Every structure is written in structure tokens, then in C-alpha cells.
């Protein structure tokens, strides 16, 4: 029997590959080679599933990254590099997921609300990292947005910009960061 997480991970894969219209109970059951009864054991219909799927997306593709970076205890420059490594590694493996969620958000108000919250959380976190780098306060929000827009823009062009190319673009953008102060202790 598949776990709830198996159902949700499969849903993210289907969403990334084929879009929101492909998220049907029949398709999920077919992908997992399970019955509808197994689906209903975990979810209250497709609407309940979609709600849980969006929560799973937010947890796995935003909250988990922030927790991993903050748990490192590293200084801001290292946390920012670590975040970029995590995000770009996931982007390589989940190509299309972010674009699929954004496309879905254009036609579904509930998805839009989740996407807005995810975007706000990510920009706020990047802004906080930029603040920790020690630049002028007036740069904090614009730089948080810039760093985020690099990723989103890179995903939206056709073909999407590869993770190695995005890494290079980020390295160039990070040249705008204030110089690290020498450790005087």
C-alpha cells in the first residue's frame, strides 16, 4: 500500500510532467498501480487531494529548503550559497514543477493563494539573507526579488535555463553583495 507521501510525490511528478489537468484519481491510481479505494483511504476526493498536494509542494519546495539552510548555522554568504545549491539541484530533478504550479495558479484561485504565499515566503527569506550580508537596507527587498526573479525567469523561458547556467548567473548577481568583512577575532 502506498503512503500518503507516495501519492503526493506522484502527484508532483504528474503535475511537473503533464500539468494540472492530468491530476485525476484515475491517473494517480494508474501511476501507482493501486485502486481508488487506496486513494480514498488517504484523501477526501480530488479536491482534498489537491489541497494536500499544494501543502506538500509548499513544504517540500520552500519550507524544507529554508529549514535546511537555517539549520546549518553558517554565516549569511555560506547560507545563500547552500540555498542556491539545494534549489538548483532540485530544479535539475524537478524541471517543470514550478512552471506547472504557476500555470495552474492562473486558472485556480486556491492555487493562486498558495503560489502567492510561496513567492512571498521565498522573497522574504532571500531578503533576510541579503540583509544578513550587511548591505544597505534600501537594497534588501529589491535584491531579494532579483535573486528570486532569476530563478523564476530562468524557468519560464523556452527552453528553460539549465541549472549550471543559472548558477553562473547567480554568481554574477552575487557580485553585487557587500564584501565580506574580515574576521577580527
TrEMBL record:
Signal sequence region: none
Keyword Secreted part of the UniProt annotation: no
Cross-referenced Pfam families: TetR_N
Gene Ontology molecular function: any one: DNA binding
Keyword DNA-binding: yes
Superkingdom of this protein's organism: Bacteria
HTH tetR-type domain span: 8-45
Swiss-Prot/TrEMBL keywords: DNA-binding
InterPro entries in alphabetical order: Homeodomain-like_sf (IPR009057), HTH_TetR (IPR001647)
Protein name according to UniProt: TetR/AcrR family transcriptional regulator
Organism: Spongiactinospora rosea
Amino acid at each position: 500500500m502506498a503512503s500518503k507521501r507516495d501519492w503526493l510525490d506522484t502527484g508532483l511528478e504528474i503535475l511537473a510532467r503533464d500539468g494540472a489537468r492530468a491530476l485525476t484519481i484515475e491517473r494517480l491510481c494508474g501511476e501507482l498501480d493501486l485502486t481508488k479505494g487506496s486513494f480514498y483511504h488517504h484523501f477526501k476526493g480530488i479536491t482534498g487531494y489537491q489541497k494536500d498536494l499544494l501543502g506538500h509542494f509548499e513544504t517540500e519546495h520552500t519550507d524544507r529548503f529554508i529549514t535546511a539552510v537555517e539549520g546549518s548555522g553558517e554565516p549569511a554568504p555560506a547560507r545563500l550559497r547552500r540555498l542556491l545549491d539545494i534549489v538548483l539541484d532540485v530544479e535539475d530533478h524537478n524541471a517543470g514543477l514550478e512552471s506547472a504550479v504557476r500555470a495552474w495558479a492562473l486558472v485556480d484561485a486556491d492555487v493562486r493563494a498558495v503560489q502567492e504565499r510561496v513567492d512571498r515566503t521565498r522573497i522574504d527569506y532571500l531578503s533576510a539573507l541579503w540583509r544578513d550580508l550587511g548591505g544597505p537596507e534600501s537594497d534588501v527587498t529589491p535584491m531579494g526579488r532579483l535573486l528570486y526573479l532569476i530563478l523564476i525567469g530562468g524557468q519560464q523561458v523556452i527552453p528553460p535555463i539549465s541549472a549550471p547556467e543559472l548558477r553562473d548567473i547567480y554568481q554574477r548577481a552575487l557580485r553585487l553583495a557587500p564584501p565580506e568583512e574580515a574576521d577580527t577575532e
